[in-house]
Write a structure and sequence with these properties.
Radius of gyration: 24 Å
Number of helices: 10
Structural class: alpha+beta
Largest sheet: 14 strands, antiparallel
Strand content: 25-35%
Distance between the termini: 37 Å
């Protein structure tokens, strides 16, 4: 969606000179999103079940702090409480590695989410999926009933590129019972409420224990001795309603990720690739976090925690920008 933007306030320390301002502690730069040509389209999308009220707007802010850059989006007049009622517990981080590449965690009210889907999705979508309306109603009913079983944390941990653990809080055994019924021709029973398959050196398992439904790819659902609960980023996402975290340092240490990344750099202009690589090497980790049902933060945390983030970025960008400007002038 294209949104017209106007800057409401821009404050960079007390000095308008960017180079001199780097010597100061950087203040917040706030600007407001103004919905222009796409106002009606955005309102219709967000007006699901009365989610967006009249007079709603979206405010965005950017802050450069020591060792981190923070962008925050706050949706005023938007009610997201239908599915986000509580903060995540992070209980399942104990089943993720301390050096996991990425972690997704959401607190989900399955009954309210299923109700929202039922109100806004009908059999009219059957043609989109290439099935009859009766088939669509059958599958959609199974899906919404499965979602109703979820009540609490939904955690996905990417321990490695081919090592994944998924775990969620459930109120009953509806999901695993359907796995047993519909997956019997593919999955083998491996224990009480545990099913799986192995092929070509890869394995998949799905199981249910107590009030937890879990699934694994090339991994085991077990508590780690060195788990993500001891990660350096744990304090940053404490109290969140949901988050997606990517550990940039660990990703770059992964052979498959680094080889793909380096291949992309080789396809770029040499100077562009150098700038991108320098900035990536500055990063420790990055995450998106719902700090409130209507507030979303984007945060990049740098390796150097003692120097202002904008100052660090400017030091990398200015030589590149100067060189490019000189090239244009001499052209």
């Amino acid at each position: 969606i294209d949104l017209a933007r106007r800057y409401e306030e821009v404050t960079i320390a007390e000095n308008n000179d960017l180079m001199e301002a780097c010597n100061y502690e950087w203040e917040r730069v706030w600007y407001k999103e103004i919905i222009a040509e796409s106002e009606k389209r955005l309102a219709n999308i967000a007006k699901v079940d009365g989610m967006m009220t009249e007079g709603s707007d979206v405010v965005m802010g950017i802050a450069f702090e020591n060792g981190r850059a923070v962008a925050e989006v706050i949706a005023n007049g938007v009610d997201m409480g239908y599915a986000l009622e509580r903060q995540v517990s992070n209980n399942y981080l104990a089943y993720a590695d301390n050096d996991a590449l990425a972690v997704l965690n959401l607190s989900v009210n399955g009954k309210q989410l299923a109700d929202l889907l039922s109100k806004n999705i009908s059999a009219e979508y059957a043609d989109m999926f290439g099935v009859s309306r009766n088939e669509f109603n059958l599958y959609f009913g199974i899906l919404t009933d499965a979602i109703k079983s979820i009540d609490g944390d939904v955690t996905v941990a990417l321990n490695d590129i081919l090592d994944v653990v998924v775990a969620m809080d459930v109120t009953d055994n509806y999901i695993i019972s359907n796995v047993a019924q519909f997956g019997s021709g593919i999955l083998k029973k491996r224990g009480d409420n545990l099913y799986g398959i192995s092929y070509g050196g890869y394995s998949f398992a799905i199981g249910h224990t107590d009030n937890t439904l879990y699934a694994t790819v090339n991994s085991l659902f077990e508590r780690r001795e060195n788990s993500a609960t001891e990660s350096s980023w744990i304090a940053d996402i404490d109290g969140s309603y949901g988050y997606l975290l990517m550990d940039v340092d660990n990703m770059m240490d992964n052979s498959l990720v680094s080889s793909t990344y380096n291949r992309q750099l080789r396809n770029m202009d040499k100077d562009d690739a150098t700038l991108v690589n320098n900035i990536v090497e500055m990063c420790d980790y990055a995450y998106m976090s719902l700090n409130a049902p209507n507030s979303l933060q984007f945060v990049i945390v740098l390796d150097d925690k003692n120097t202002n983030a904008l100052e660090q970025i400017v030091k990398q960008v200015m030589p590149y920008a100067t060189q490019r400007a000189a090239s244009e002038i001499l052209r």
